[in-house]
UniProtKB/TrEMBL annotation:
<dbReference type="Pfam" id="PF07690">
    <property type="entry name" value="MFS_1"/>
</dbReference>
<feature type="transmembrane region" description="Helical">
    <location>
        <begin position="320"/>
        <end position="339"/>
    </location>
</feature>
<feature type="transmembrane region" description="Helical">
    <location>
        <begin position="242"/>
        <end position="260"/>
    </location>
</feature>
<keyword id="KW-1133">Transmembrane helix</keyword>
<feature type="domain" description="Major facilitator superfamily (MFS) profile">
    <location>
        <begin position="24"/>
        <end position="462"/>
    </location>
</feature>
<feature type="transmembrane region" description="Helical">
    <location>
        <begin position="144"/>
        <end position="160"/>
    </location>
</feature>
<feature type="transmembrane region" description="Helical">
    <location>
        <begin position="346"/>
        <end position="362"/>
    </location>
</feature>
<feature type="transmembrane region" description="Helical">
    <location>
        <begin position="210"/>
        <end position="230"/>
    </location>
</feature>
<protein>
    <submittedName>
        <fullName>MFS transporter</fullName>
    </submittedName>
</protein>
<feature type="transmembrane region" description="Helical">
    <location>
        <begin position="280"/>
        <end position="300"/>
    </location>
</feature>
<dbReference type="InterPro" id="IPR020846">
    <property type="entry name" value="MFS_dom"/>
</dbReference>
<dbReference type="InterPro" id="IPR011701">
    <property type="entry name" value="MFS"/>
</dbReference>
<feature type="transmembrane region" description="Helical">
    <location>
        <begin position="374"/>
        <end position="396"/>
    </location>
</feature>
<keyword id="KW-0812">Transmembrane</keyword>
<keyword id="KW-0472">Membrane</keyword>
<feature type="transmembrane region" description="Helical">
    <location>
        <begin position="180"/>
        <end position="198"/>
    </location>
</feature>
<dbReference type="GO" id="GO:0022857">
    <property type="term" value="F:transmembrane transporter activity"/>
</dbReference>
Length: 542
């Protein structure tokens, strides 16, 4: 797999060894950071952006959907585009345009223009992660693959754990404009690293003549429409909204049209039968379960601290930075060493076990929990982040067929980006519905005239009487209602942790079904007693 020199066979083929591998690795690092920080921009920083652009709640919601939906639209096609046009063209020019758009956006006050620029911003951003991953396989020596893939794999956890602190720092100290303007600095630097770290490749005109443009457009449009429907569903009441129904049904129809297109065209862009390989299909399912399981890190902990603990992003970000992001500098090298000597499936089991333990710990949640009470959970999640996605990617790549590499890359990008964003939308709906259920049941236990209710209301009214007798009773009732809502929210977050726990357990079951990968560049090299035992059994080891 690793030694195939035919650039036309896909992103796992070799496009020429990088003249300066360190520059190529730096490009991977910068592109991964920029893509994941900006993906979090419209979640962590959205309240600040709504205030800065004077947007209503609905306008802010569509701004977020437009930015992420456009990333999902372009991401599956990037591997093919880079194979045809070369990495320098696919990353170099978009990085400069992205910097220009990032510079302009803070000065825009017209909402339709802002929405259009956000779509362009997302389209350009959507090329960064898929293209930087291709740098690893096309231009780096094999010995660089595992460290470079580790940068790609931990970018999610690292961005989740640092984005809250960084957003808070920008807003409080430099100005909210730097939420966009950091791209003005980083994107051209990434483009320079790509130019220095990758060879100049000619356009593959043979593949260009056989381009399956219809398949690319149908898949990108279908997945992005489905995402938009799910993202807006929680706000617009799902099936009660014609907009949501149109997006979901339209996306489903386009996806069926994509499947029909791939079965009819002479040179299909994304072979559907790549999913029928047992290990590949199971690996993609595990990637999806990973994105859903890690929602406990990306959504539950920071959202609880914000909604129940009433902390600003930079305050909760200190926890995620100190106990989530920084430990990865130690954990990732350990993970790389372990993968060189142990089966990736065993390492994945360790990672999901840590996620399961962290989520089980989170089910003990109460409204009294403060930031420091989450330290153990965040540490376990950091171990899970460092020992889960990297071995999953190794398993998938070890079982992939180089001749179907662009197909594999398309589907893995859907799982990577679409799965994560759709998971966030569904988790938001899960928390809202569970909060409503718990509010209903808690409210049933607060009957009018109940002795305990009367006693609590009297205590609250006596407390507020010092500030005005006339409003004391109303304030007492409002305070009791807010306490009920708080407890309903806490119970909803507990249900969220239970959901993530069972998703981690399901992932462990799927990993158990994956068989050993064929020998290749990622095959672990046993050491010590294991090496000696294999040699005595006549098994060749490297």
């Amino acid at each position: 797999m690793a030694e195939n020199d035919d650039a036309g066979r896909g992103p796992l083929s070799r496009g020429g060894v990088a003249p300066q591998p360190l520059f190529a690795v730096a490009a991977v690092l910068l592109g991964s950071f920029l893509a994941n920080f900006d993906s979090r921009l419209t979640t962590v920083g959205l309240p600040d952006l709504r205030g800065a652009f004077s947007l209503g709640f609905d306008e802010g919601a569509w701004l977020s959907t437009a930015g992420i939906g456009s990333q999902i639209f372009i991401a599956p096609a990037v591997a093919w585009l880079a194979t045809v046009f070369g990495l320098r063209r696919v990353l170099g020019i978009p990085s400069l345009v992205y910097a220009a758009v990032s510079l302009i956006i803070p000065f825009v006050h017209d909402y339709p223009t802002l929405l259009g620029l956000s779509v362009v911003h997302g389209l350009l951003l959507g090329t960064f992660v898929p293209a930087t991953l291709m740098i690893v396989f096309r231009n780096l020596p094999i010995r660089w693959w595992l460290p470079a893939i580790s940068i790609y794999s931990i970018r999610v956890g690292f961005a989740l754990d640092t984005s809250s602190s960084l957003v808070g720092f920008y807003v409080d100290h430099l100005g909210w404009q730097w939420l966009y303007w950091q791209g003005v600095v980083i994107a051209p630097l990434m483009g320079l690293m790509v130019y220095l770290g990758t060879p100049n490749e000619p356009v593959n005109r043979a593949l260009l003549r056989e381009a399956d443009w219809g398949g690319m457009l149908l898949l990108g449009a279908s997945v992005s429409m489905i995402y938009a429907g799910l993202d807006q569903g929680n706000r617009l009441d799902w099936l009660g909204s014609g907009t949501v129904m149109a997006l979901l049904v339209g996306g489903g129809v386009l996806f069926v049209a994509f499947l029909v297109n791939e079965s009819l065209v002479r040179q299909p862009w994304a072979h559907v039968n790549v999913l029928f390989s047992r290990n590949i299909g199971l690996s993609l399912v595990v990637i999806l379960l990973y994105t859903l399981t890690s929602l406990s890190n990306s959504s539950l902990v920071p959202n609880f601290l914000g909604n129940i603990g009433l902390l600003r992003p930079e305050q909760s970000g200190l926890l995620l930075l100190g106990y989530g992001a920084l430990p990865m500098f130690v954990l990732v090298p350990i993970s790389i060493w372990v993968l060189r000597h142990f089966d990736a499936r065993a390492v994945t089991v360790v990672g999901f076990t840590c996620f399961a333990a962290a989520n089980l710990w989170g089910t003990q949640l109460t409204h009294d929990w403060a930031r420091e009470d989450f330290i153990g959970i965040v540490l376990l999640q950091a171990i899970g982040q460092s020992t889960t996605l990297l071995p999953i990617i190794i398993m998938a790549l070890s079982n992939s067929d180089p001749s179907r590499a662009t197909s594999f890359a398309a589907y893995i990008q859907i799982m990577r980006l679409g799965g994560a964003e759709i998971g966030v939308a569904l988790m938001g709906t899960w928390l809202r519905v569970r909060e409503q259920v718990h509010s209903f049941y808690l409210g049933q236990n607060l009957g009018v005239g109940d002795a305990d209710v009367v006693r609590i209301l009297k205590q609250l009214a006596d407390h507020f009487a010092a500030h005005g007798t006339g409003s004391a009773q109303a304030r007492a009732v409002g305070t009791l209602a807010s306490l009920v809502q708080r407890e309903a929210n806490v119970l909803a977050y507990i249900d969220g942790f239970w959901l993530c726990f069972w998703l981690a357990m399901a992932a462990l079951g799927i990993v158990a079904l994956i068989t050993r990968a064929p020998p290749g560049p990622f095959t672990p090299a046993p050491f010590g007693f294991a090496r000696m035992l294999l040699r005595k059994c006549g098994v060749p080891v490297t």
